[in-house]
Amino acid sequence: MNPLLLGIFKRDMQIAFQQKAELVQPLMFLLMVVTLFPLGVSPSPETLQRIGPGVIWIAAILSSLLGMERLFRDDFIDGSLEQYTLSGMSLPAVATVKVLAHWLVSFVPLLILSPLLAMFLNLSMDMFIALMLTLLIGTPLLSLIGAIAVGLTVGLARGGLLLALLLIPVFIPLLIFATSAVDSAALQLPYHPQLAIIGAMLLLAAAAAPFAIAYSLKVSQN
Amino acid sequence: MQFDSFSAFLEMGGYAFYVWLSFGVTFGVMILLVVLSYRQHKGLLKSVLKEQQRQVRIKEAREKSHASSAR
Amino acid sequence: MWKWLHPYAKTENAYQLCVTLQPWLWVSALLCLAVGTVWGLAFAPQDYQQGDSFRIIYIHVPSAMLSMGTYVAMAIAALVGMVWQWRTAYMSMIAMAPVGAVMTFVALFTGAAWGKPMWGAWWVWDARLTSELILLFLYIGVIALYGAFEDKQQAGKAAGVMALVGVVNIPIIHYSVEWWNTLHQGATISKFDQPSIAPEMLWPLLVSLLGFAFFIGAVTTIRLRSEIVRREMHRPWVQKLAQATSENS
User: Fold this and answer.
1) What SS3 class is residue A117?
2) Chain C contacts of B12, Cβ < 8 Å?
């Protein structure tokens, strides 16, 4: 890999490890939101198993929106974002590398936490495996598409809620296919069609999103 | 002694996995807490020392430049 | 009556107290934990219903009781800090918080590991388990709030308010088993009644409880020392201390 891109990746990872508290907060939010459902809806194991996949995916989407802004915020504030844009580097490549670092730091902990969430919501082992697969393929999608919107709102003062309004409609197809996969797993039915569709969306995003992110960064920085 | 043999002790009447998991994780986490707390303390004292030494070096450098500019 | 406590408003005196107490706390902790654990694992009788899995009680009950006790101690420290404006009170509060959180985690984990063979589930959403989980969230909230402030004076006050707000949860956990029908069994040890547990099982439990309490004290002293050093870095006595420590090592 281009040493410059590797350098950007390493820098993002190092900054992330210094900001451990900021990374833990979305995870705690996720945990607490999941805890609210048994308390607010019903603690009955059957109900929890029925709503579990949807609850976990919705909580994952909401908590990811909380952590999404840090993708470009610090670089925007200290001017490095402008430097990346003005330098001769390929901005789509920079975007890809930053999204990769963001996914590793924000979503891999979520994957690690998911067994605990599955236990809280009484998911069966089949359902849990399906959930893990959907999270594995689906969360990079959240990062890639999310980065496009983050790039557009990076300069805005109160862009946080706006970001949520922009991204939630876009994430709905992913939510539908992911929960459909886990529900099929609950009924012991095959779910590779749903996984295949999510995979296809991911491939499309991996190919196209970097260019969209680069364009949105140029737009927001004028 | 409630158990006939050491292997019976390890077996815990069939509940070996749960009992040893509990005791293992508990003491593991407690030991981790202790190690981290002591490391934190040592690190803090070290950083105080480093800052002290830095201040001494700054002072010496300042005096040197004073002495050389006074000449 | 509390005049003897007053010197410890000064960080230097508090630090020295920690240094003095630490070895005693460690020795007591290790002794009681070793005796309690070995007694509970190997010498206490097994339960006629639950067999040997029952031995988890020797870590589950102490950690659960002390998770609540530490939170109350934290809240008292916060109150002392607020009313008398003692920084050492706030520092003690934040020193205790991670230890209490660890105890809460241990209680939840050992409870799950005990619940699985006995009642068939790692986790159920009954009142006591849920309020213990909420206690863990509260600990994490206090720790996170303190860490979010650059100015640790402010941090202490903010975290103190949160700790006091959360203390309402403690009576709820304790009485939840009486107020709601829950899967969790009732209180084993109560001030007012004869304990519902056989004496051969009660004694190792009490020794373990003492061991965990001394452990919490020992770890809190080292953490309090760290917090004092961190906050008082520029004081001459801390500077001297850092030099003396490096010369000894």
Assistant:
1) helix
2) 52-53, 55
Count of domains in chain A? 1
Cβ burial C26-40 (10 Å sphere, 16+ → b, else e): bebbeebbebbbebb
Residue C149 — φ and ψ, nearest 5°? -95, 135
* Per-window interface: C 59-118 vs A, CB < 8 A: none
Mean pLDDT for B8-22 is 85
pTM attached to this predicted model: 0.85
For residue A221, count CB atoms less than 10 angstroms from its CB and return exposed for 0-12, middle for 13-18, buried for 19 or more. middle
Among chain C residues, CA nearest to A44: C125
pLDDT in tens, C84-109: 999 999 999 999 999 999 999 999 99
How far does C178 lie from chain A, in Å, by closest CA? 19
For residue range C156-212, list pLDDT tens digits in order. Answer: 999 999 999 888 877 877 777 666 655 566 555 554 455 567 788 889 999 999 999
CB contact under 8 A, B23 and C60: no
Nearest CA in chain C to B9: C42
pLDDT attached to residue A126: 93
Backbone Cα Rg of chain A: 18
Choose the mutation target among C122, C125, C128, C181 for the interface with A, i.e. most A CBs under 10 Å: C125
The residue written with tokens 């410890």 in the block is C8
Residues of B in contact with C208 (CB under 8 A): none
Partners of residue C103 in chain B, C-beta under 8 Å: none
- The closest of A151, A172, A162, A166 to A76, measured between CA atoms, is A151
C121: left (phi over 0), alpha (psi -120 to 50) or beta: beta
Q: Which two tokens stand for residue C208?
A: 């373990």
Structure-block tokens of residue A35: 């805890």
Tell whether A116 lies on the interface with C, counting CB pairs under 8 A.
no
Residue A205 lies in domain: 1-219
For residue B35, which residues of chain C lie inside 8 Å, CB to CB? none
